[in-house]
Amino acid sequence: KSNAVMVEKEESRVTFEDVAGLEEAEMEVKEIVDFLKNPKLFTRLGAKIPKGILLVGPPGTGKTLLAKAVAGEARVPFFIISGSEFVEMFVGVGAARVRDLFNKAKEKVPCIIFIDELDAIGRSRGKGAYLSGANDERESTLNQLLTEMDGFGSNSGVIVLAATNRADMLDPALLRPGRFDRHIYLELPNLREREAIFKVHLRPLVLTGSIDVNFLASQTPGFSGADIANICNEAALIAARKKEDGVGKIDFLDAIDRIVAGLEKKSKIISAEE
Ligand code: ATP
C-alpha cells in the first residue's frame, strides 16, 4: 500500500447543513467551532477547551462528516490521517509521520487534526496485539501520538478529533486527561433521523413525482447515514440508466433492494469467516 498521501490538508467545505440527525453530537462540537472562531471568548475566562475529542460510533454514522463540518464551520484547515495507513509500516516511519503531521498543524493554527480509525494505532497493548509483527510499529506510533498530545497546551489552537467504532478497545493511555478525554457518541439513526438524512441527500437530485421521505425512512431500519447516501446515489444511477427525466419512487425502491442484497451478502461473508 502506498503511503505517499498520508497527511492531507484540506479546506473543508462541509457545514452543519450537510449533517442530519446528529443533533446532540452537533451541539457538543459547536463549542469547538465557537472556540476556533473566537478563542478569546474562552481564554479570557480561564476556560480550557479539550485538546482531544473522540467520536465513537458504528461505521457510516457520520464521524468523518462531523469532523469536516467542524473545520468547515470554523473555516480552519483540516488535516486528516487514517490509523489503518500506519499498520504495515516499518518501525519508526509511523512515528515520524505523526511528528510531521503535528508539526505541520502547529504552523497552521487554529486547525483541526482528524485521525480516522484511531483503533488501528491505539488498540490496547497486549490485547492480542503481540501476535502480529506490526506490534512494535504500532506501539512506537502510539507513543509518538501520546507525546504529541502532551506536547501542546489546551488552548494552543490545535484540536485533535479522532474516530473509532470501539472506544473499549483503545489503550487507556489515550483516554487520560489532556488526551482524548471527551467522548461524543454517534448512533445509527432512528426513523426521524433517517428522514432528515434522506432530505440532505435528496437535495442535489432531480426528482420526478413526489418522494415521501417518511416512506423511504420506514423502509430502511438499521441503515446508517452512509447507507442512505448510497441509496440516493444508486437511485439516481438507476434512473440515469433508464434515461428517465428524474429520479422516481421506483428507483429508490430498486436501490434499497440492491443495497439490502449487498448488505446481506456482506454479512454472510462475515459469518462464514467466523
Ligand atoms: P467510518 O466509521 O466507516 O469511517 P464514518 O462514521 O466516518 O464512517 P462518514 O464517512 O462520515 O462515516 O459517512 C460517509 C458518508 O455518509 C458521508 O460522507 C455522508 O455522505 C453520509 N452520511 C453519514 N452520516 C450522515 C449524516 N448523519 N447526515 C448526512 N449524511 C451522512
UniProtKB/TrEMBL annotation:
Span of domain AAA+ ATPase: 49-190
Top-level taxon of origin: Bacteria
Binding site for ATP: 57-64
Name by which UniProt lists this protein: ATP-dependent zinc metalloprotease FtsH
Record has Manganese as a keyword: no
Function comment: Acts as a processive, ATP-dependent zinc metallopeptidase for both cytoplasmic and membrane proteins. Plays a role in the quality control of integral membrane proteins.
Family: In the N-terminal section; belongs to the AAA ATPase family. Belongs to the AAA ATPase family.
Subunit structure: Homohexamer.
